[in-house]
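Reviewer has doubts. Consider these tokens.
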Amino acid sequence: MSPARGGLLSRLRPDWYLVLIILMAVAASVAPARGEAAVAFGWATKVAIALVFFLHGARLSREAVIRGLSHWRLHLLVLGSTFLLFPALCLGIVALPAWISPPALASGIVFLGCLPSTIQSSIAFVGIARGDVPAAVASASASNLLGVFLTPLLAGLLLHAQGGGAVSPSSFWSIVAQLLLPFAAGQALRPWIGGWVQARAKALSRFDRGSILLVVYTAFSGAVVGGVWQRLGALDLVRLLAICLALLGAVLLITRLAAQALGFSKEDEIAIVFCGSKKSLASGAPMAAALFAPALAGVALIPLMIFHQVQLMACAAIAQRYAERAATPATDMAAETG
């Protein structure tokens, strides 16, 4: 097996952290938290969510966003894909007949469309594809920064318009307390604690991941107690997988064609395609727990978990293709000079 093929296959392997998340959903399905245990897990989840968003605020570099402002056309296209194109496509999906789009998953599909882009994987894939990494850093950071404010707003408006009713006006103060205030506090304290947070990035990353596992278990416990598996079957999950594949394919194609039509360089096109086609599980899991009632939060996470794995596997292959194309001119030039 060639090194290039071996590298591609290694990137196509399942995300083992996602496997852990799925195992937490399975554990909640077998032994959901009930009664006093559910109350305890609920409070622990709220505290964990607040800490996660505090750390997000302390980590996100405003300097990276400011550095990338010179690429404002690129960033507008990425943000347009993330917060306009995705929500519009997801609304279109939930409007399809029930035999195509499962009604029980409608709120989760709309919620998926409202989420910000990823940071780490977007930057990693842009680097593999030899794209504009500084622009990717700026776009992904700006997406997450705006997502703290835009995702709850969009989710509330679109779910109300769609008839899901999952996010009520009374949820506003819960969102402020669990998401916005901790995030703002982290940003405000970044000049003093940013270095400390960066120095302990590995340990704090484990806390982030552990918090998401807690969120998933608590959310799925509420969903299982609420009878989610009586409303969803294997065929619904198969249909959801097909929907996620179609959604990702549509966004990848539209962002690529838009970048080319607007005259962006190949490096900028790569940043637009990868940053504009991702949805963040790290942000989505705590947001779902804050925005949705316990019985609905677990259901809302199902489309996101499936889309997350689909985007990783598909983008790994696409990044490799971009990298091979980017290397071709240099190889040809070397052959000519040799």
In short: Residues 138 and 201 are 20 Å apart (CA to CA). The chain has 15 helices and no strands.
